[in-house]
Amino acid sequence: MLTATAEVPAAVDAPASTEPAWAWRDAPISTLVQRIQQLQNERAQAFRRLDQAHRQYLLSGQHHDFPSYRSVVHEVTQAFAAASREVLAVEAELAGPRAQPVLARHVRSLQDLEQTRLATVALLQVMGTPGVSEQEDPEKLHQLKINFHPLL
Known about the structure:
- Residues 29-56 form a coiled coil.
- The chain is mostly helical.
- The chain has helices at residues 29-59, 66-95, 101-127, 138-148.
- The chain starts with 28 loop residues before the first helix and ends with a helix.
């Protein structure tokens, strides 16, 4: 799962508000950049986890462990979705109140590239997963598409 590290505070609830406060609202720009770097490190870990799960699935022999692979796909998808929401919030903060349009555009480009990368990895894994083609097992293909749906 994606988590904030000790160096940068995590989001907290505002005392008298029905909406949670965004922990980065008053943070220096350097802290926002550090958070983006942390999110990128967490994404890299998630990519490694997805790759490991796919390799394990492929090595699990004749009776492939599809439920375990599907579970990791779901968890990683959720982690990427959480990271994306936070990156987009940082981008909005930079583009709006912080008046840092160039930095905001770089963050947006990074987000777009990560989305493309993840969708490509997901597609390649689905295509390279034995027993998951439309002809072989349409139900398994459907389950992976549902889990990867936010990415494809």
